Amino acid sequence: MANEVEAAQDEVIEEFAIFDDWMDRYQYLVDLGRRLPPLADDELIDANKIKGCQSQVWFVASEKDGRLQFRATSDAAIVAGLIAILLRIYSDRRPSDILETPADFVSQLGLDQHLSPTRSNGLAAMLAAIRNFATEAQQAA
């Protein structure tokens, strides 16, 4: 049986399958990013910035009842869309599900081939931040 992270990945992969070309996928990413809830001004601080992203990305993580909550935003449209996908897949999940599930959606969506190297590095940095927080939460439990 698939865990919640795998199920969310499968949902996102199915959603993107309806778009035949990459321009439509990019537009969908931008639309997803526009719908991200904003972070509070006091969260837009250097301590919450993800290192390794060319654009600015702020990432806030917390834990509640054994589940991890992630919120994030970016000043770049496509990156904000990538964040929206990551939040759908990983937010409100158990640390063990996050750590046990490879990020297969990256290759299945073709992100590894269609993102610029700087966006790919940023995506990898965001995934690393999520996994690091999950590792810390699991060790603290």
Describe the structure.
With 141 residues, the protein is mainly α. It has a single domain (4-140), classed as Sufe protein. Chain: A (Alpha-Beta Complex). It has seven helices and two strands, in the order ααββααααα. It has helices spanning 4-17, 22-34, 77-90, 95-100, 105-108, 111-114, 117-140, and strands at 57-64, 67-74. The chain has a two-stranded antiparallel sheet with strand order 1-2. α1 packs across α3. The model has no long low-confidence stretch (mean pLDDT 94).
Give keywords.
single chain, Sufe protein. Chain: A, two-stranded antiparallel sheet, globular, 2 strands, 7 helices, 141 residues, mainly alpha
- How far apart the termini lie comes to 24 Å
Order of helices and strands: HHEEHHHHH
Radius of gyration: 14 Å
Strand segment tally: 2
Overall 3D geometry? globular
Within the CATH hierarchy, at the fold level, what is the topology?
Sufe protein. Chain: A
Topology:
Blueprint: H1 4-17, H2 22-34, E1 57-64, E2 67-74, H3 77-90, H4 95-100, H5 105-108, H6 111-114, H7 117-140
Antiparallel strand pairs: 1-2
Helix pairs in contact: 1-3, 2-3, 3-7
